[in-house]
Here is the input.
Amino acid sequence: MKVALIQTRTPATQDAALAHVLPLVREAAAGGAELILTPEGTNLLQKDREKLLPQLRNLDEDIVVKGLRDAAAELKVWILIGSALVKRDGEGKAANRSILIDPQGQIAATYDKLHMFDVNLPTGESARESELYEPGGRAVTAQAGPAKLGMTVCYDVRFPALFRALALAGAEIMTVPAAFTRPTGKAHWEILLRARAIETGSFVLAPAQGGFHEDGRGTYGHSIAIAPWGEVLGHLDHDEPGVLFADLDLAAAAKARAAIPALANARAFTGPGGG
Here is the structure.
């Protein structure tokens, strides 16, 4: 299966975001990709809450989601919108939602980011995703052509139990669209992604935001595709917008899991101090 990871520097408005990502999607389709993946926050990145909130739309009204649904139908490809920042129906908070679109332009699956990035970094940067976004409550797998995907978003990569649950549910490919900060990206990005691939015997596809954005944030870039044995299939060694292609032999997941049967060998245990 040929896949393409889109690396973006998403602008702070939806019209500009769609104009930014569509040419990259078309480039990926022209290169033969059957599954095209975009990063977290594909529809807009705006860290100023007062500027962000008026732009948020429900999923069926979002400009970028509509545009990419049309593109999937036109190009006859699967598109994973790594995430779109959207309104929740009937609730006060938004959702950071990953969206799988089929080659007919229909929404095949959605996943709301489970883990909120609420941190104070040593650099002085801070983030409080939970102030705006309501976390999801369930893990999601979805079929995309011949492949079963396990859907995650960014900070989820630091929670191995989620990836194990997805692998046990049959996912062969873990999708990790992201907008990693530059300090954490430099320190942890590739290490965490390769660990998730190795411990679950899964492909890991991680399309990323990169560079310095209109809203003032900096993201790490370095989109990467990793095989189930942990080897890097390809990566973008920069933070500029671009397309990364990778060819996946889906049988490699079963082969890796047979060679190191960690999923099958795991045992239940009592925690420290438990009765």
